[in-house]
Amino acid sequence: MSEKHLQKGSAFPAKSDDGKWRLYSMQYCPYAQRARIILALKNVPHEIVNVNTTNKPEWFLELNSLGKVPVLDTGSSIIPESLVICDYLDEIFPEPPLHSKDEQRRERDAALLKEFDEFLTIYHGGIRSQDEASYPACVQELTTRVAKFDEELRKRGTYFGGEKPQMIDFMLWPWAERAPIASQIFKENFPDATVFPSLYSWCAKMRVNPVLQDTKTDFRKQLKFYELYRCGGFIDYDMPI
């Protein structure tokens, strides 16, 4: 694993001789965290190369012209996009199975993730805004949408996957892990976690999952990253704390 984030001018990192797959990632990216979680859950031998997504290495743009992480290199294929990567891993490595065998349930999960993408558009716009006067309206919209997820979870059980976490849970988790950051940004406008009892309980159970413990990012670094991201300042991707 590259401890530091490689940037423009960095040489392409030589691959190991053991045939391990490689994930191009970024320490603070929730989309890349999705892929790291599933690779760990599936016990897939792999190495991680961290990329500075603001000042990208030239060779990374050759791998993915959009310049986004995550990107999975299997040795024979280059696979971008977090959901595509995670579904691919679940297909190639069937244990433990992470998708429901029920087709209607899978369709509902896909619809829920689509709704979540709409939520993220509003969420990311809100945390980037420097206009604090806009926070109440933004938080109200987010709260309304989160309430729908809380109700959906109440109907489904302990997890969105039912009685055990499945792919849908792990795809949502990186942003749930970052919820305390949103509370720091929106401050008094942010609702108390107990407003969403089902999600509150879900978070408590997910948080102690060993794989999620191993793939989390230090909260202080995450908060610092988001503060710099919001103001458009220089981001030291390898910042010390």
UniProtKB/TrEMBL annotation:
Q: Tell me which species this is from.
A: Photinus pyralis (Common eastern firefly)
Keyword annotations of the record: Oxidoreductase
**UniProt name for this protein:** Glutathione transferase
InterPro entries in UniProt:
Glutathione-S-Trfase_C-like, Glutathione-S-Trfase_C_sf, Glutathione_S-Trfase, Glutathione_S-Trfase_N, GST_omega, GST_Omega/HSP26, Thioredoxin-like_sf
Alphabetically, which GO biological process terms does the record hold?
glutathione metabolic process
Give the similarity note: Belongs to the GST superfamily. Omega family.
Domain GST N-terminal span(s) in chain numbering: 19-97
Listed GO MF terms: glutathione dehydrogenase (ascorbate) activity; glutathione transferase activity
GST C-terminal domain residues? 102-225
Q: What residue ranges carry the coiled-coil annotation?
A: none
Any single GO CC term annotated in Swiss-Prot or TrEMBL for this entry: cytoplasm
